[in-house]
Amino acid sequence: FMTSDHQYISRKHEEDKMIVFEKGDLVFVFNFHCNNSYFDYRIGCRKPGMYKVVLDSDAGLFGGFGRIHHAAEHFTTDCSHDNRPHSFSVYTPSR
């Protein structure tokens, strides 16, 4: 993915303290809010299909609280969001 030409920042939301971007086939979701966790946070993406968590800074290994279920599968819908043709929802805990 490091050499992929595809990269796109789909969300920079100051109030939510969220950044979402695509690099290759991966979608990166960052919640920098110190208090607010978001349930069913809509994420726009280029490719339809199923997405899974690959890296989770809330995992106990990184000093987090382990609030993310790693076996969860996030399926896209044809609902466009943030100028992307597809989207899915995730839980994003605060840090």
Automatic annotation (TrEMBL):
GO BP term, example:
carbohydrate metabolic process
The entry lists its GO molecular-function terms as: catalytic activity; cation binding
Q: Which residues form the Alpha-amylase/branching enzyme C-terminal all beta domain?
A: 8-95
- Kindly name one Pfam family recorded for this protein: Alpha-amylase_C
Q: Where is the signal peptide?
A: none
Q: Can you tell which superkingdom this protein's organism belongs to? A: Eukaryota
Task: Name it.
Answer: Putative starch branching enzyme IIb
Q: Which organism is it from?
A: Sorghum bicolor (Sorghum)
